[in-house]
Amino acid sequence: MLKIDMNRAMKKALLAALLLLIPLAACAPNSAPIASTEAPTTVEPFVAGAIPDQDPEKLQRLYSKLADYLETELGVPVEYQPVTDYAAAVTAFRVGDLDMVWFGGLTGVQARLQVPGATAIVQRDIDADFHSVLIANKNSGIAPIADVTGLQTLKGHTFTFGSESSTSGRLMPQHFLEQAGVKLEDFKGEVGFSQSHDATIQLVEAGTYDAGALNEQVWQSRVEAGEVDLNKVDVVWRSPAYFDYHWVINPAVADRYGADFVEKVQAAFLRLDPTVPEHQEILELFGARKFIATENANYDQIEAIGRQIGKIQ
């Protein structure tokens, strides 16, 4: 029995010594680090969108190039996410599916009212002095209109707007028509809503409608590209100026990318330089010479008119 007790005592002593050596080995300077099993952290994409006011193929080309530029400038993944219509752009911004959206004046106001803290950050140089145009089919008998009061000559003609929520294709043209005493029921039949500026040109050129309202910049770019038959359709009136398109950004991006991220995005737009070929292509696709800073207060007139015609509650 003594032999057995001695063996047991020796085993206990050896085990105690091993237990003392384990923490010392873990602290040894040459010990190998334990490999992490956690996946590397990925940066969530910054998602931009835009109201679908033009041909989808043109928009895809424009915003894909812009996304590449912003990704380089901001150092985070940037994606362009198309939407089906103007209302969908506002909804996607409200629920957080889009972090930043290229809105018209009206949709920008609608979006900001639904997202506290949302900010208008930049607009094109042309958006501080923007205009709508009214175009007419040359077989309609509509002569050039000199001033707002002359819009009364449109009574009794067929007429189309663009999207129901378009600032340049509906809101401001309807505002000026009402100033001239022209109501929607004064047109022949029901007024149309073509859903885009390009579609308005096509419908009036084809004679489907006698006249229509659209964005002046889109009209000019399509004429310069030779995409309009000026033997069939032309401008009969140019509106007074107003503020229009702008980028609106969701304040939640500051929590994701840093407190100064909104300023970084604004600065990236302001750095677009027409003397740099890659930048020039983006600016030309936007129909601008440069981007300039803007602020929410610039769209107070748009908000007031939107409430007046029932597009903002």
Description:
The protein has two domains: 46-125 and 244-308, Periplasmic binding protein-like II (D-Maltodextrin-Binding Protein, domain 2, 3-Layer(aba) Sandwich), CATH 3.40.190.10; 131-238, Periplasmic binding protein-like II (D-Maltodextrin-Binding Protein, domain 2). The protein contains eleven helices and eleven strands. It has helices spanning 2-26, 56-74, 86-95, 105-114, 167-179, 197-206, 216-224, 253-257, 261-270, 277-286, 300-308, and strands at residues 46-50, 78-80, 100-103, 119-124, 132-137, 159-161, 192-193, 211-215, 233-238, 246-249, 291-293. The strands form two sheets. It has a six-stranded mixed sheet, with helices on both faces. A five-stranded mixed sheet has the order 7-6-8-5-9. Helix 2 links the parallel strand 1 (46-50) and strand 2.
**Could you give the order of strands across the largest sheet?**
2-1-3-10-4-11
Number of helices: 11
Average pLDDT taken over every residue = 90
The CATH class of the largest domain turns out to be Alpha Beta
Shape: globular
What count of structural domains? 2
CATH superfamily of the largest domain: Periplasmic binding protein-like II
The name of the CATH architecture of the largest domain is 3-Layer(aba) Sandwich
| C-alpha Rg (nearest Å) | 31 Å
- Low-pLDDT ranges: 1-37
- Tally of DSSP β-strands: 11
The CATH topology of the largest domain, please?
Answer: D-Maltodextrin-Binding Protein, domain 2
Following the backbone from N to C, one meets helices and strands in this order, namely HEHEHEHEEEHEHEHEEHHHEH
Structural category is alpha/beta
Q: What distance separates the N and C termini? A: 97 Å
Helix content: 40-55%
- Beta content comes to 15-25%
